[in-house]
User: Which sequence fits this backbone?
């Protein structure tokens, strides 16, 4: 994906303006920056969830380029049980996986008859990630996917994403920098709605922090 130019303006004066940014295929790209830098706006526009109100010039490798987007805050049907929710997904999506297979993948067999509103926030988060586990996309966009999930599931999610990148590009935003350093191939740093820096992951947290908070080299 090549972002020739995206520009979006808000009424209060903030604007997002990203130009000449290449998002390489089959890599995990960390999108980082302070709160208010424009990360969620950029991800929402790229996914089609939100429309840029000034300029949108983005080139993709093919016409039928598919994008999966999991926002940081997403509401699910909490009045359903886990099994009912998974069945709803299976019935109305193109996945070839069965309800049992998905519940097993989530490691939620013991919770299959439990109402979603009785689950922990972390277990609810797992359910929101079902699409990326069961469907094929060219680009997957994840906004804060590691929030509220336990250490074991973070480990499993990182393994899953490493497998998925063999067939998709992953753009991921998180404030958990240690996890991003373990996972990502490259980074994009946003600051005040602009690309401040892009760099390859050196697998060193101090290098990453310097690039984000002390300026680009």
Assistant:
């Amino acid at each position: 994906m090549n972002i020739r130019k995206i520009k979006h303006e808000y009424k209060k004066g903030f604007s997002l303006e990203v130009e000449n940014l290449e998002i390489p295929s089959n890599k995990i790209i960390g999108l980082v920056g302070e709160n208010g830098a424009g990360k969620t706006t950029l991800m929402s526009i790229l996914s089609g969830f939100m429309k840029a109100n000034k300029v949108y010039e983005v080139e993709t490798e093919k016409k039928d380029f598919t994008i999966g987007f999991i926002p940081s805050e997403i509401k699910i049907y909490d009045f359903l049980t886990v099994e009912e929710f998974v069945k709803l997904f299976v019935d109305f999506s193109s996945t070839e996986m069965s309800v049992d297979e998905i519940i097993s993948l989530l490691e939620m067999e013991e919770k299959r008859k439990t109402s979603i509103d009785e689950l922990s926030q972390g277990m609810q988060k797992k359910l929101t990630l079902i699409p990326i586990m069961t469907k094929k996309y060219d680009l997957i966009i994840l906004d804060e996917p590691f929030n509220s999930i336990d250490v074991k599931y973070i480990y499993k999610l990182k393994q899953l994403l490493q497998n998925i990148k063999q067939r998709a590009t992953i753009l991921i935003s998180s404030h958990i920098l240690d996890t991003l350093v373990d996972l990502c191939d490259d980074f994009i740093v946003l600051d005040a709605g602009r690309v401040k820096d892009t760099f390859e992951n050196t697998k060193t947290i101090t290098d990453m922090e310097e690039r984000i908070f002390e300026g680009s080299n």
Notes: The radius of gyration is 18 Å. The first strand starts at residue 2 and ends at 9. The mean pLDDT is 90. Residues 181 and 205 are 6 Å apart (CA to CA).
